[in-house]
Amino acid sequence: MREKAVYACAIAGIALMVWNLHTIFMGLPNDALQGFIFRIIFIHVPATIAAYCFYTVALVTSILFLARRNFVYDSISVACIEVATVLILVNLVTGSIWGRNQWGVWWAWDLRLTTQLMCFLLYLGYLLVRPAITEPTQRATLSAFIAIFAYADIPLVVMAIRLPNVRTQHPGPVLETGGLAPVYVAPFVIGIFVMLLIGTALILVRLQQESEQREIDSLRRELHAL
Amino acid sequence: MDITNLRFLFYGYSAAWLIVILFVLLLVRRGSRIDRELSRLKALLADRQR
User: Fold this and answer.
1) CATH (domain of A100)
2) pLDDT of residue B2
3) Which domain holds residue A191?
4) Average pLDDT in the B30-49 region?
């Protein structure tokens, strides 16, 4: 069942992505100010939106783990966080390349960029701390606390370009302010679905590995008891 | 057409897919390591129980 869901999500995601890339590169006009490079928005922003969705799932499952002590929630958290962190890396790298072209610098210590980098580093910390703790309950409990703490950075990233008294170099929000021309909206939304589908497929694969890892842990305990 | 602009767009998309592909390869490698370890432990357990 899980294997079928992985294939369904991956095939749907890849098919939609190919169709969307065709539209982005062959069907859309260039942006008047940025030219070709504007098309990076169709991968840069959807990657972050999908990542935040997965981080939100991880937040909920981390709270559920602390409340119910069920290890399935811990597995969902780690799977979501790992995939979301890869998507945040995609966001940071594509943003940096765009910045080099448009601003002339690879990086600026702007509020939006800095809080996003913090988000990446906080969740990277989560992924690096986990293997260091061998006892499963202790590992899952500490991981849940880190996941909840790290999530506090996400509202900061979102608000960094929306606060009235903050000057930021990063472009402002485009969707809710109508800054995105109608012709760009459909590929943008499809881009979000592509990232969600491919991300879900990767999370399901990671979940399978986590359940096998738990089986390995229990076999080791059984062998130790013999 | 601004070629520099196009080149950076190419870098952006290539970097993004390279990161995703590297992660997929990492998942595949980890998956095969887990499968190997699981079958080794199952065989060891069956051996000890005999």
Assistant:
1) 1.20.120
2) 66
3) 2-29+37-213
4) 92
Say if residue A157's pLDDT is above 60.
Answer: yes
Q: How confident is the model at residue B50 (pLDDT cuts 50, 70, 90)?
A: confident
A194 located within any domain: yes
Looking at the complex, does the CB of residue B50 fall below 8 Å from at least one CB of chain A?
A: no
Domain ranges within chain B, ordered by starting residue: 19-50
Q: Is B49 on the interface with A (CB under 8 A)?
A: yes
Q: Which of A44, A216, A226 sits opposite B37 (nearest CB)?
A: A216
Q: What is the pTM of this model?
A: 0.93
The alpha carbon of residue A60 is apart from the nearest alpha carbon of chain B, in Å, by 24
Using CB atoms and an 8 Å cut-off, which of residues 76-115 of chain A contact chain B? 83, 86, 89-90, 93-94, 97-98, 100-101
- Give residues 16 to 55 of A whose Cβ lies within 8 Å of B: 34-37, 39-40, 43-44, 47
User: Taking CB atoms and an 8 Å limit, are A212 and B38 in contact across chains?
Assistant: yes
- Give the span between the Cα atoms of A134 and A139, in whole angstroms: 7
What does the pLDDT read at residue A183? 87
User: Do the Cβ atoms of A226 and B49 come within 8 Å?
Assistant: yes
In a domain, A145, yes or no: yes
Mean pLDDT of B29-41: 95
> Looking at CA atoms only, how far is residue A45 from chain B in angstroms?
12
Better pLDDT: A143 or A1: A143
In this structure, of A31-40, A169-178, B5-14, the range with the lowest mean pLDDT score is A169-178
Asked, for residue A95, whether it belongs to a domain, the answer is yes
The number of domains in chain A is: 1
